[in-house]
Amino acid sequence: MITRMPLFLLFLILKQYYCVQADSECLKLDISITQKVEHEGFHREIRWLIETTSPPSDIWVASACKLSLQLKVSPGIYVYPDEVAELNRTRKLLLHIDGHVDVEAPAHEATEHTVYIYLNNSNIGRISIVLPMHLRYQRGQITGGYGKVPLRKPSLLSWCPDSLDRICGKGVKVEAPCDETATRVCVWKNLTYQAHFDEVELFVPVGDLDDYPLVSIVTLLLGCAGCIYILSVLSMTHI
Ligand SMILES: *[C@@H]1O[C@H](CO)[C@@H](O)[C@H](O)[C@H]1NC(C)=O
Ligand SMILES: *[C@@H]1O[C@H](CO)[C@@H](O)[C@H](O)[C@H]1NC(C)=O
Ligand SMILES: *[C@@H]1O[C@H](CO)[C@@H](O)[C@H](O)[C@H]1NC(C)=O
Predict the structure, then answer these.
(1) How many CB atoms lie within 10 A of CB 9?
(2) Whether residue 180 has its Cβ less than 6 Å from ligand 2
(3) How do residues 73-83 score in pLDDT, each as one tens digit?
(4) Which atom of ligand 3 is nearest to the CA of 172?
(5) How does residue 110 score in pLDDT terms, banded at 50, 70 and 90?
(6) Is 207 buried (19+), middle (13-18) or exposed (0-12) by CB count in 10 A?
């Protein structure tokens, strides 16, 4: 009993030492994200500026950890697969779309999809991302005017080859594709970041059913007037 005591103490000391060591060795990630939505109407661009003040780029690259942005796109919005496939092919934006995107569907018939954007490790200090997206047509309302579509905040996910706890802090585990090829699923850690923006709602013009008959009658009348004018000019030149 007495001979075992020092061994036990030694074990405690070693355990303490390694835990402190492991704790202080975790990478403290300090990331802020700014978001801007450009343009009006149906075609928009989300611009994110992702800035990392810690760790320095070389330490981050050496860790071989990866970052990705996960955006859950609400039914009123879609990312056009052909458009982003081109950006992905030219490696301007490495991304994967999870879920089927029906580009024809109006907002009330559409389903959600999720976009994963894989960030380039070598530029961790400052990464700017431009994601083109489109608003769906809203069901026409008697009142017309504008519909509102929520644009959610993206989640920032991290993955490290050795252990998820390589990055300090608690974070809920999330299953997501490892990279843009989406051939494997990895377990990522959902990180907190400083958001220099608020969750926003985008305004979409809504077809106004009230105006519809008036608009078609005016269009028809203008069309007739045009025809009559052309015909009269033509017959004048013949005379
Ligand atoms: C990441 O950025 C570096 C430096 O800008 C560039 O050389 C490299 O090709 C980029 N990697 C990818 C996968 O786009
Ligand atoms: C991006 O490119 C990879 C191949 O490099 C491909 O597997 C993936 O499907 C592409 N993603 C999109 C959204 O086109
Ligand atoms: C990640 O955490 C944020 C903030 O806690 C939360 O709003 C978001 O839904 C989480 N994302 C995932 C994919 O769990």
Answers:
(1) 10
(2) yes
(3) 999 999 999 99
(4) 14
(5) very high
(6) middle
